[in-house]
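Reproducibility note. Readers wishing to regenerate the assembly model reported in the main text can use the exact inputs given here. Chain order matters: entities are listed in the order in which they were concatenated for prediction.
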Amino acid sequence: MKMAPRNIVKYVVAMMFVAGVFLSWRFGFAPGIAAGRSFRDFMLEMAAFLPLMFILVGLIDVWLPRSVIERHVGSGAGIWGSVWVILLAMLQAGPLYGAFPVAQLLWKKGCSTRNVFIYLGAFATIKVPMLTFEIGFLGLRFSLLRTLITLPVFIAIAVVMEAVLKAKGFVVLDPTTERRE
Amino acid sequence: MVMTTIGVVFASLLFDRKRTWAGIRKGVRMFLGILPDLLIVLVAAAVLLALTPESVIIRLLGRGSGAAGIATAAIIGSVALVPGFIAFPLAAVLHRSGVSLDVIAVFITTLMMVGIITLPVERKYFGWKIALYRNGLSLAGALVVGLLMGLFL
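Running the prediction on these inputs yields the following structure tokens for the assembly.
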């Protein structure tokens, strides 16, 4: 695979950071060690979800026909379409940036603008694995109340996004194939 | 998640080997496509977090409740990138040290929905304009969530 010069720069920057962390560790530079520790946490979280997520997205892309997505979560799907994307999002796990490729897939296959943003809102705020964690640390009452309040809020955000983007045309890019910057 | 993926890959292989590899290749290519930007974002997030350790976050938020506390929580939550398995223990520590629950709700909600530092990744999918709209609206939404939580708790 040919690599864009810009991407090479990014990899070099990341490697310089790792080298910096190593030097910090060697010479006991505390902030550098702390940054290294956070970076390790971020990398672990990313590596735990993202590669699998992308493989699933790739497989769903080749198997699921557009008509299925369009019928169930497209513009004509009504309230059930929104219920479906919320359930899909709740069953997943991982950081929000992992939801962007799924949103791209949904959009490409005919999901409505509103449901794309409902999906992102639900993924960000009410994933079940995350809720169990939240209940453990902050209590059922807090978690339940936050879920019930957040649900209408992210639906409202999606409705506003749809209204704003209606006239302009809504596109979700595939960063690997499209270059429109 | 791992089990699901393995199951799906196997089922897919049973049906059509060629198509399965095409799908996996596609997924891997998408992953590698976003990886450089993601690495930069994670490096930036790690450096930022090292400059503002937990003790500083607790001190900033611990000062208060009320409008000032909510504003501080919204700003920190919007900028910071914190994995879920660290965010909730941190929120519990904040609560124990006296930070009110509406402030914590704003902090958590902005952490989850608003990602200033991940904007370089988000705009690769949505473009700057839509990414900024979504983050701006989510910030406003998080404040609404905080205010309502304050009313009920």
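We highlight two features of this model. Chain A touches chain B through 79 residues (CB under 8 Å). Residues 30-63 of chain A form the longest helix (34 residues).
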